[in-house]
Amino acid sequence: MRSVSEIRSLLEELEQQPANALEDQDLDFKEWIPRSMKDSVALVVEMAICMANGGGGTVVFGINEKATGRARAILGVPPEVDVNRLKKAVYDSTDPKLTPVFEGLLVPEGTGRVLVMQIYPGIPPYTDTAGRGKVHIGKDCQPLTGTLRRRIMVETGETDFTATEISGRLESLISASAMERLRQSAARERAPDDLLRESDRNLLGAIGLIRKGRFLRAGLLLAGTTEAIREHFQGYAWTHLRMATDTDYSDRADGQDAIPLAMERIIDRIMADNPIATVPQGLFHFEIRTYPEIALREAVLNALVHADYRIHGPILLKQFKDRLEISNPGGLPGGITPENILRHEPVPRNPTLVDALTRLRLVNRSNLGVRRMYQALLIEGKEPPSILDEGEAVRVIFRASELSVPFRMFVADESNRGRILSVEHLLIVQHLLRHPEIDTATAARITQQTESDARETLSLMETEFGDIERGGTGRGTYWTLRHDLHRKLSVPGHPERDRRIDWEAAKTRVLSVLMERSRHGEVGLSNAEIRQIARMDRFQVIRLMKELMAENPNIQKPGRGRNARYVIPKKPKKM
Q: Are residues 555 and 468 in the same domain?
C-alpha cells in the first residue's frame, strides 16, 4: 500500500505522465462519477473487492487516469461525499466483510480534494453479496473467474495440495537415496549441521513434513519413493527432450523421482549438451557454459517447486540447438506477471513444500531466484531469460547466446574495485549496447521499476559509476553509454560507430524525402512523419532535425501546432 505522502509525491508526476502509467499491483487511480452518487458508490465497492483479492492496496479517487498535467488529471471528489457512508457501503456490500480506511488529500485542483482508499491484505476470495467479484492483476481489475478463485485459494494456502496427509507406513514411503541427496544439497547450502544429523523421521518432522505421525504430500515430493509418488501424485512427471527440429526429438528421458533426485538427473542431462567456451585470462583458462549452471538450477527448481500438482501434465524441458525451454503446469500465482516478476513479493503455490525447502536453505522467501537467473546470464553479456505466463503453464526460455568476453571482464573489473553491478545496472548497459540511447520510461520498463526508481538508477550509473552520459533536458532527457566504454564492450559486428551510422542514415533518409517533396511542390514533413521514417520518438526527431538544419541551412524551421512542417523551399525556375 502507499502512504498519503507517497500519493502526494506521485501526483507531482502527473505533470509528465498520465496516472495509468503510475499504476501498479497495489495502486490504482479512478475518476469520480459526479453525475451519479449510486454509480460512484458502486465503483468504490468494486475497487475495494478488486484490491482485496489482489493482496491489498491503495485506490485514489478523483483522478482522470488518462490525462497528462495536474490541472487536467486531478478532477477531485465533491466535498459533500461522506467517507463514513462509503465505509458503511463497502462493509454492507462485501462478503467476507471489508472495512476500508479513507483519507482525504487536499489539492489545489478540481474540487479541492481527492480520496485515498486503503485496503489492507486479508484472506481472499472476496465478493459482493451477490457473489460477484474482481481481482487486481497488474494494473487491471479482472473478473474473478473460477480459475482465478482456485488460484487465490491455492496462494493463500487454503488448498495447499502439498499439505494434505497420505496413508501408509512412513518407513515404506521414504527413499533412502532421496534423503541422502536432500542432505547433500542442504549441506552445500550450509543448512544447520544438527538438523542434518537427525534421523530421517526427525529431520522430516523438523521441517514440517510429518503431521501426527503421517507423511504429507510435500514430504513425498522431497523424500518419497518413486512407487509412492506414482500412487499419490498421478499428475507428476518430468520429461526432458533433446529436440532435433521444432517438432521432432532425438532423445528423451522421463521420471517421477523425488525432487532432489529429479533435479540431479535433469541437470546432468542438460549439462551433457551445454557447450563450453574457454576464456584465457593471464596464466589461467576459464570454462564458461552456454547456459550458466546457477541459472539452470534456479529455473529447474522453480519449475519443480511451483508446479500445480493437481493438474495432470509433466514438467517439460525441451533442449533445442539455439534455446532451452522449461515449463511447468500452473500459471504465475498471486498477481505475479512477466512484467513485475523481478519486483513482486514471493507467492508460493505450495507453501508447505516451500517452507520445508526454506528451512533447509534450498530456497529463500525473498524472491531472489529469478534475480539470480537474470544476473548469471547478464554478467556474461547474454540475454536474460524470457518468462511467459500461458494461463495453465509457465514457460522459461534461455537463448543460446555467446559469451561476451569484454563484458565479463568489465563486470569482473568492477567487482575487483568493490563495485557490484545490480541486475538493473546490467540490464541498462546491455540495452545501451543494442540501442543508441535510453530514456526514463524505457529504463523503468526493462528493469521493472517505477519511473522514479529508474531515474535513481540512471543517476547512480551516471554520477557514481560514470558508465553513462546524460543528454537533453526535461521530458526529453536521455542517456547514452560512455563512448570509450561502448568501444570496450562492443563485440565484433556491433562497434560503437554503428550507433552514429544509424543516426546518419536516418538523416539521409529524411533529407532525401524533403528534397523529393520540394521538387514536386509538396508540403514538408511533420514530426510524426519523421518518426515513422526514422523509427524514433518525438524528442529524438527534434535532436535529429536540429543537426540536419545545421548541416543544411535551406531547411526551414517548422512553425507551431498540428500544421508544423520541416520544409525545403522549392527553387524558382530560371528565366
A: no
CA-wise closest residue to 334 among 81, 84, 25, 545: 25
If asked whether residues 244 and 377 sit together in one domain, one would say: yes
User: Mean pLDDT across the chain, nearest whole number?
Assistant: 89
pLDDT at 392 over 80: yes
**Where are the extended beta strands (E) located within 120-191?**
127-128, 134-137, 140-143
DSSP string, 159-176: T-GGGSB--S-HHHHB-H
Q: At what angle do helices 440-447 and 423-434 cross, to 10 degrees?
A: 120
Q: Is the pTM of this model over 0.85?
A: no
Side-chain-side CA neighbours of residue 279 (13 Å): 15
The grid coordinates listed for 106 are 487536499
Cell 529447474 -> residue = 300
Query: How far apart are the C-alpha atoms of 528 and 538, rounded to whole Å?
Result: 7
Q: How confident is the model at residue 523 (pLDDT cuts 50, 70, 90)?
A: confident
Task: Give the CATH number of the domain where residue 435 resides.
Answer: 1.10.10.10
Q: Which domain holds residue 483?
A: 419-489
Out of 112-126, 253-267, 505-519, which region has the weakest mean confidence (pLDDT)?
505-519
Same domain, 370 and 256: yes
Count of all residues that appear for the chain in the document:
575
Place of cell 532423445: 251
- Please state the φ and ψ torsions of residue 570, each to the nearest 5 degrees: -70, 130
CATH of the domain at 541: 1.10.10
Tens of pLDDT, residues 174-208: 999 999 999 999 999 999 999 999 999 999 999 99
- Bridge-based pairing of strands 468-471 and 386-389 is unpaired
CA distances from 391 to 124, 158, 180, 332 (A): 20, 21, 36, 8
Q: Which helix (H) or strand (E) holds 231?
A: helix 226-232
pLDDT at 495: 43
Domain boundary among 210, 232, 254: 232
Whether 351 is covered by a domain: the verdict is: no
377: CB partners within 8 A, 6+ apart: 292, 295, 383, 384, 385, 398
Burial of 27 (C-beta count, 10 Å sphere; 0-12/13-18/19+): buried
Same domain (yes/no): 180, 317: no
Q: Which residues contact 426 (CB under 8 A, 6 or more apart)?
A: 374, 375, 378, 379, 411
Q: pLDDT tens across 494-515, in order?
A: 444 455 556 777 888 888 889 8
Same domain (yes/no): 173, 52: no
Whole-angstrom distance, CA of residue 48 vs CA of residue 60:
11
Per-residue pLDDT tens for 332-366? 887 788 999 998 888 788 999 999 999 999 987 66
